[in-house]
């Protein structure tokens, strides 16, 4: 489904403009729609683009009038991370360059070649999850439930406000890359004794969808409720799909993001077997070092991030604080390799270009990128090269990697990094790339944020997440005006 861009000049980005012109969506036939000259998207003719095929124009008019003004804003944020369990503490630690990487304490990993991770040492469900459920659930679900409810609290969703919501117009779309690995692993061990010893909650609480489902049950929200699992791109897929539910008029409010808790023997062992992890055990805080010549793999992390997405008019009517506007995003597939990025970065480049086109903005509008950059030899450079190809002529561009301080949160990484991007918009500061001591010779240090925080008036923030299987995802945020 393709919509023609609204007619705004480059000098006046669409999110600063007055009311948008109706988008054309045609039913029954393909029709060419001429675009504004300076914001024209590329097409085979150079002057027009083909718009998708649907049957009948009357339906198109109704649908266009229903959705043309629907904008999506972020009104709440919730996190569970090794650097804090609220957005401000988390971001202040990022700005100060605090590392959340340390030796693993949850289990004995002395025999493992990697013994460090971004492990949450202190976590409490008090006041957020019923004690009975807290004892049974996998930690990925507990992180998810707490981050989701904290996003509501952060968004001013008091009991009174919640009671007035149309629950059929509220949904939950929070994913996980790995799901309940601890519950499943414990059940496998129990099965070695007898199936009678297995946890009766093994199947439901190991499923990636169940965290999202349990939160919806707790809130009584009856709108769209599901999860998406696309490895480390999971959160971005969830956020963009949640926003699309709002844009289409199906809901007014969505909780969206990701959660993972894989710092357990099978999780650590599995990534070691992939030869993906850093082995800098003697210097945990210096182990995650995106774009540095001495990087030797990523560092596992855990936690959750959840955004409260809301239709603009709905948010305004209840007097919500608007942290940022969600502009759009995109997905692509490398269609190349199970774990390795495409050698020419084609999928990443296509994903970013599609995201800009879908949001109706130019590459000059973007001046901040929260990169996927995991601290792997190949991945960091392929992403950087794609960014340089697209944004390289922008002297104001700044790029950083949140993973330098918290490690790689797998399916939760995109949502937690989206919170970092939104906080950069709010505060006017972008956090450092710690451990960038000897930048790779292939990167431009003028583009990368250094080892100290930097001032930046963020116009548009791009947040990237890529996953095993060649899943590429990009989402865009901007200040709300």
Report what the structure shows:
The protein is α/β, with parallel strands linked by helices and 481 residues long. The chain has three domains: 1-68, no CATH class; 72-317, Thiolase/Chalcone synthase (Peroxisomal Thiolase, Chain A, domain 1); 331-478, Peroxisomal Thiolase, Chain A, domain 1, CATH 3.40.47. It is 31% helix and 16% strand. It has 15 helices and 16 strands. The chain has helices spanning 57-67, 87-95, 131-136, 139-154, 159-164, 181-191, 202-206, 210-219, 234-247, 265-273, 312-317, 346-359, 377-391, 403-406, 413-427, and strands spanning 32-34, 48-50, 72-80, 102-103, 116-117, 170-175, 225-226, 253-260, 303-311, 324-333, 368-370, 398-400, 429-430, 454-455, 461-467, 471-478. A hairpin with a 3-residue loop joins strand 15 (461-467) and strand 16. Helix 4 (139-154) packs across helix 8 (210-219), helix 9 (234-247) crosses helix 15 and helix 12 packs across helix 13 (377-391). The longest helix is centred in the first third of the chain and has 16 residues, at 139-154. The two termini are 28 Å apart. The model is unreliable at 1-67 (pLDDT under 50).
How would you name the CATH homologous superfamily of the largest domain?
Thiolase/Chalcone synthase
Detail the poorly predicted runs: 1-67
Gross morphology is globular
Q: Can you give the helix content as a percent range?
A: 25-40%
N-to-C span:
28 Å
Radius of gyration: 22 Å
Instruction: State the name of the first-level CATH class of the largest domain.
Output: Alpha Beta
- Count of individual beta strands: 16
Q: What's the story with the biggest beta sheet?
A: 10 strands, mixed
Number of domains: 3
- SS class: alpha/beta
Number of helices: 15
């Amino acid at each position: 489904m393709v919509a023609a861009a609204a007619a705004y000049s480059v000098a006046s980005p669409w999110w600063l403009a007055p009311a948008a012109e109706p988008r054309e969506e045609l039913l029954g036939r393909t029709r060419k729609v001429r675009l504004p000259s300076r914001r024209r998207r590329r097409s085979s003719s150079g002057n027009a683009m083909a718009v998708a095929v649907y049957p009948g124009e009357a339906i198109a008019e109704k649908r266009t009038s229903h959705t043309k003004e629907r904008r999506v804003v972020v009104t709440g944020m919730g996190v569970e991370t090794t650097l804090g369990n609220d957005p401000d503490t988390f971001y202040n630690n990022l700005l100060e360059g605090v590392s959340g990487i340390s030796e693993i304490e949850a289990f004995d990993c002395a025999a493992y070649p990697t013994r460090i991770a971004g492990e949450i040492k202190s976590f409490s469900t008090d006041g957020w999850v019923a004690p009975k459920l807290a004892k049974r659930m996998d930690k990925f679900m507990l992180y998810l439930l707490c981050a989701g409810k904290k996003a509501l609290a952060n968004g001013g969703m008091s009991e009174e406000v919640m009671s007035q919501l149309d629950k059929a117009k509220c949904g939950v779309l929070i994913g996980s890359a790995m799901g309940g690995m601890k519950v499943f692993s414990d059940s496998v061990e129990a099965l070695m004794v007898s199936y009678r010893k297995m946890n009766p909650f093994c199947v439901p609480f190991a499923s990636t969808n169940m965290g999202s489902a349990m939160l919806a049950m707790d809130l009584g929200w009856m709108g769209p409720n599901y999860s998406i699992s696309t490895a480390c791109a999971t959160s971005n897929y969830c956020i963009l799909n949640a926003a699309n539910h709002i844009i289409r008029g199906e809901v007014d409010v969505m909780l969206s993001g990701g959660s993972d808790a894989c710092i357990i023997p099978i999780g650590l062992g599995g990534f070691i077997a992939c030869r993906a992890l850093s082995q800098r055990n003697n210097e945990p805080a210096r182990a995650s070092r995106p774009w540095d010549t001495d990087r030797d793999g990523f560092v596992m992390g855990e936690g959750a991030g959840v955004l409260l997405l809301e239709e603009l008019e709905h948010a305004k009517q209840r007097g919500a604080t608007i942290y940022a506007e969600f502009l759009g995003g995109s997905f692509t597939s490398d269609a190349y390799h199970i774990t390795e990025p495409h050698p020419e970065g084609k999928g990443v480049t296509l994903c970013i270009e599609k995201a800009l086109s879908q949001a109706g903005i130019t590459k000059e509008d973007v001046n901040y990128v929260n990169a996927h950059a995991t601290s792997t030899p190949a991945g960091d450079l392929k992403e950087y090269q794609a960014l340089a190809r697209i944004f390289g002529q922008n002297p104001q561009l700044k790029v950083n990697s949140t993973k330098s301080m918290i490690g790689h949160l797998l399916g939760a990484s995109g949502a937690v990094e989206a919170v970092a991007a939104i906080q950069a918009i709010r505060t006017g500061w972008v956090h450092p790339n710690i451990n960038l001591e000897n930048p790779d010779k292939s990167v431009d240090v003028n583009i990368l944020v250094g080892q100290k925080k930097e001032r930046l008036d963020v116009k548009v923030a791009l947040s990237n997440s890529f996953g095993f299987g060649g899943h590429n995802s990009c989402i865009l945020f901007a200040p709300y005006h």
